[in-house]
Design a protein that fits this description.
By secondary structure, this protein is α+β, with helices and mostly antiparallel strands. It contains seven helices and 19 strands. Strands 1, 2, 3, 4, 7, 10, 11, 12, 13 and 14 form a ten-stranded mixed beta sheet that branches. The protein has a five-stranded mixed beta sheet with strand order 15-17-18-19-16, with helices on one face. Keywords: Isomerase, tRNA processing. This is tRNA pseudouridine synthase B.
Length: 307
Amino acid sequence: MARNRVRKGRPLDGWLVIDKPTGMTSTAVVSILKRIFNAQKVGHGGTLDPLATGLLPIAMGAATKTVPYIMDGTKRYHFTLKLGEARDSDDADGAVTATSDVRPTDEQLQQAAADLTGDIMQVPPVFSALKVAGERAYDMARDGRPPELPPRPARVDRFVLIDRPDADHAVFEVESGKGVYMRSLARDVALACGTVGHIAVLRRLRVGPFTEADAISLDKITGSAEEGPASPELLLPVSTALADIPAVALMPDEAALIRHGQALGLMDFIDRIPETGPDDVVRMMDGEVVLGLGRLEEGWLRPVRLL
């Protein structure tokens, strides 16, 4: 008779927003926090490159169910473009592959950024986790077999030049959705100006509802855990990740049906439906408790993710 595997660690639920230091992978941060909190289940809401710093949302327990909604949220970045050098990784961690003496004007950089705003087609960096015929692109690149990656649709909501410290460097602010590579934007804005470039500094300032005000340094967490597992009081509620999603208030009997996975006819609470588009996802509330997420479709509220 098969036995259910017992998870090791504490059954913690919630979000922790880490201000990731440079030089660490997102996976390494997850491993450290899983050990420090002695948590059963830990994941993250969107990879940051080792070179990058800034917001890395960490999900524990039930919060891992809301990771897709965090990853779909708006992200804000600042990056410094180093002009005149192309790198194989499109950031400062890579090897130099080309150089140029061309240094564009501020106006040229601003125009190139404007042209890369909106719905664009973007070629991902070869040093990325995308799979090509079952292999990771970065593994192929490290083996000297960099793959030809096809352009992919991307949505860039804001891309502006915010500082020009000197002729060799330009600082940009970007707001984008899921799956947009900052390293590709840096590479492409330089190429559009007739030169080459790569990211020298990258920082993420926002992920969905999380901002720098929510962030805590990894050093502070590790320091507080020297005498035992870190305190669960450091975690934000699971529902924090869903704060940007319109809410619908349910009566106790409606909430009971939703908890059992049943759909509700919208005509019964048409006056409580938030302003959303067709087939939009809503946050289903039982008083102050978030039951999960539902979808408004064809006259019904159907649960799609229960917490």
